Each structure stands twice: as structure tokens, then as C-alpha cells.
Amino acid sequence: MLRKYFRNLFIVLFVMAGTLAHNAYGQELTPHLAHVNKPVKAVFKAPTVVLANSVKNLYKSTLNMSIYHTFGLVSSGVKQFYGLDQGANVRLGLDYGITDNLSVGLSRTSIGKIVTARFKYSILHQMKDNSVPLELAMAGNASITTIQKPFKGSYTVGDRMSFMYELMAARKFSPKLSLQVAPIFAHYNRVYAGQKNNYFGVGLSGRYKLTGHTALAIEYIPEVNKAQGIYNTFSVDLNLETGGHVFQLFFTNAQDLTMQGMLRNTRNNFWAGDFRFGFNINRIFWFKDKPSDN
Amino acid sequence: MSPGKVLAQIYKTEHGYAQFYSRSTLENFTGKSNYLVGQVNLADSSVSFYLDLSTLSTGVKLRDEHMQEEFLQTDKYPFAQFYGKITSPFNPASTDTQHVTVKGKFKIHGVSRHITVNGILKKSPHQLFIHAAWKLQLPDYNIEIPKILFMKVNKVQAISIKATLQEKKKS
Questions:
Q1: CB under 8 Å to A156, separation ≥6 — which residues?
Q2: Residues 6+ positions from A231 with CB-CB distance below 8 Å
């Protein structure tokens, strides 16, 4: 056994020595990666894994125009054409990269007539040589509902506000697989009787690249101490990624398209078959073309 | 021929310059890298170059990301490689600028093809300057023609390389 091992080792060393000697005399070079330490590219491809934020930020001077659209429950059956007839929610958004690490955005969501201002800041970038093994980012938003008057009596601007804060840690484990963990905290200034003001959840998500242009993504957001009748958000999605576009086609049990709403208001149980179809369109433009040396 | 004499005819660099020039319907752009690695052996006429494609930069990070992730697929195919021989007559001792023809195998995106490249070389004490240019057809290498936003990139890419190689010392 041991003899066989040494014999094999000897053969390997012999072949290696032969290869080295061969190269030393001016034949074909064996390629090696350049020792340039750069951030790992495309840990995630879209600013959201499915509906919740990903660590992906916008590069400086790029604009992302996005449309998120979910329909009604597929389980509503043929009468509602599997959810396409009713229950739609549409979010229109614009986000802009101020620097390579900071982006800001405005969006409007139809259900709840919510206007949201958001930011995302990249704290660390995962580096090729693993000197930084993680991508770390934080995000936050302030949202205001513009519906007429859900409450009797006084309803101030402050009452209409809600907030979301999030820290995201992600790693691209291989060219195909990226995973993310993200604690999320949300606060509503005013809620209905019996509802909580504060919400806490942990986003667990991942992306698996299938081909050069397609990827599978999954997003699960278990919520701590959730109220009765509220379910954890689960979404499964197919990304179509081409230059300048990311299309996301998914099934989700979330109806609210703000992250605080996903924690507070997901009233369908994915595992009982109550999910809806939705799609996101991300269209990214860039504005400057400054030639630069490496 | 003694080994010493052979070694003196080998020139090497790890910081050559490579670029591609791309025409498209909206704007033309250039991808550049200063990490071209190459070796030329004037004794046996062999020429070997490779480039880590992730070092190519077009000046727009988003475009670089699309190019590397989706079109060149650098995770899967990290290098462009060339290995060939100088097939035209040349004088290895001359310090004049010499026009040469190099034939060999070029490999990118997992596809190898035989190509012929014309270039120049010029020897100076302990150095060899080389410059070459050729046209690459993206479909020849199964590289999808990138459609980025409204613009469409031309299927022909003009490649050029430029490098000053240092004489390899006896080790």
C-alpha cells in the first residue's frame, strides 16, 4: 500500500520536473492569474436578491430604473386567472450611485400608496485574494404612506412614517454560489390596535448561477416574535441577466413591496400554496465614460 | 549550441500592454490591460503570450462587469493565450526594426484557433520591443455579441499588444 503510494508520488514528481524543465527552455508559458487584488465581481447581480435588498450596490454615476410587480394569489384559481386579474402591487423606483459605495433612491408602491426614500452603503468588498472574505453593506429607508385617512381623528405626517434598517453580510463562495445573511429591523410610528411598532427579522438568501445569463435565487426572511396570522416571507426566483438588464421572475408569499411591509404584513402561507407570481425589471444606465488606466 | 547562448535569446515580460478596440452603434470604447505576460525565444522562434482577462478595464465598471461576467466568462475562462512561432525570416542578431509574421494558436473563451499575426520586433541591449495587431471575430470564439442597452457591439474587435521584454538572466 505504502509502496504503491510512494511509487505514484515519484511518478508525479518526475512528470512535474519534466514539465518545469520544458518550460524553462522557452516553450509555451503556463498561465497564472495576475496578482491584482480586486473586489470580487457580481456577488449578486441585482440590487435585490428577490424583493429584499442584496449587497449589490450601484457603481458611481449609474442609474437603476426598476419596476417590481406582483399579482394576486396563484391559488385564487382560474376565476381570477391565477392571480393575474386582481391583487396586483406595483413599485416604481429610481436609484442612483453617488459613489461606488453609496447609492440613494426613491420609489413608490401602489398598495398603501407608499413613497420611500432609501440608501445603501457598501462597508466592505469581498476581495479576490480573500484579504476581505465578505461583502458587507447597510441599507435603510424612510417611507410615508399617502393614503387618505386610515384612522379616525388626528393623523399626522409623523404617524404616516415607517423605517427600515438592515445590515447585510454576503460571500461569493464560488463563481456560481453566493449567500447572504441580513438582520432587518423595522419600525412603524403608528399602527392599528393590537399591532406591534417594531419588527425584527433575518433575511437568509442565496443566488446560484445556472448559465452565463441565468441564475436561481431564494430568499427566506424568518421573523422574530411574529403576530398571529403573519408568515415568514419566502420567495424563489429565476434571474435573467443580460448587459444592463436584470429580469427577475418569482413566486412569493409577500404582498407588500417595502421591506418593513414584508415583515409586518405577509399574511399568506407559502407552504399552504398561497403564493403569487411577480417580476422585477432592473434597467441600469451609466452616464460617464472616462477612459482610465488600470 | 551551449545552454548559455540559448538563455541569452529568451526575453520575458509580465507587464506588457494589451488592448482591444470596440466599435458599437453608440460609442466606441477601448479595453486595456498592463498585465500581458509574454516570452519570446529568438533561438527557437517561439512566441508565448497570455493575459489574465480580469485585468481588462474599459473605464466603465459596469461595462467591465458585464464583459467579464457574461461575455468573456472569465470565471470559467480566465485567460487569453497565444503560442506560436515566428515563421518569416528574421535576423536574431540585428538591432533594426524587423517586420515578422507569427503563426500559432490563439485561445480565448475556451476556443482555440490558428491565427497569423503580423508585427514588429526590435532588439536593444538586454531588451526586445514587440508590437503586433490583429482582428478578432467574436463569433469565431463563441463569444456572444454583447448588446448593452441600446447599443450593439461590432463582432470585429481590433486587438493590439505592445511590450518591452527583458532578457532572461541565467539563474
A1: none
A2: A253, A266, A267, A268, A269, A270
Q: For the whole model, what pTM was predicted?
A: 0.80
Half-sphere exposure of B35 (CA within 13 A, CB side): 21
Q: Measured between alpha carbons, how far apart are the two ends of chain B, in Å?
A: 18
CA within 13 Å, CB half, A141: 25
Mention every residue, 6+ apart, whose C-beta is less than 8 A from residue A172.
Answer: A40, A42, A43, A126, A135, A178
Question: Is the Cβ pair A243, B66 closer than 8 Å?
Answer: yes
Burial A195-213 (b: 16+ CB within 10 A, else e): ebeebebebbbbbebeebb
Counting one residue from chain A and one from chain B, the pairs whose CB atoms sit within 8 A come to 104
Instruction: Answer whether A77's CB lies under 8 Å from A89's CB.
Output: no
Contact of A113 with chain B, judged by CB distance below 8 Å, is answered with no
In one letter, which amino acid is B71? F
Q: Does A293 touch chain B (CB under 8 A)?
A: yes
Written as nine digits, the cell of A140 is 435603510
Query: A248: number of CA atoms within 13 Å, CB side?
Result: 30
pLDDT 10s digits, A166-200 = 999 999 999 899 999 999 999 999 988 888 999 99
Least confident of A24-28, A29-33, A204-208: A24-28
The amino acid at residue A175 is P
Of A36, A213, A292, the CB nearest to B59: A292
Contacts of A243 in chain B (CB under 8 A): 63, 66, 70-71, 146-149
How far, in Å, CA of B14 to CA of B39, rounded?
Answer: 9
Which amino acid is present at A203?
G
- Whole-angstrom distance, CA of residue A222 vs CA of residue A202: 6
| C-alpha A265: how far from chain center | 20
**Contact between chains at A289 and B78 (C-beta distance less than 8 A):** no
Residues in chain B: 171
- What's CA A239's distance to the chain center, in Å? 11
Opening angle at CA B170, ends B123 and B37, nearest 5? 55
Can you tell me the ipTM of this complex? 0.76
CB contact under 8 A, A59 and B62: yes
Q: How far is B139 from chain A (nearest CA, A)?
A: 16
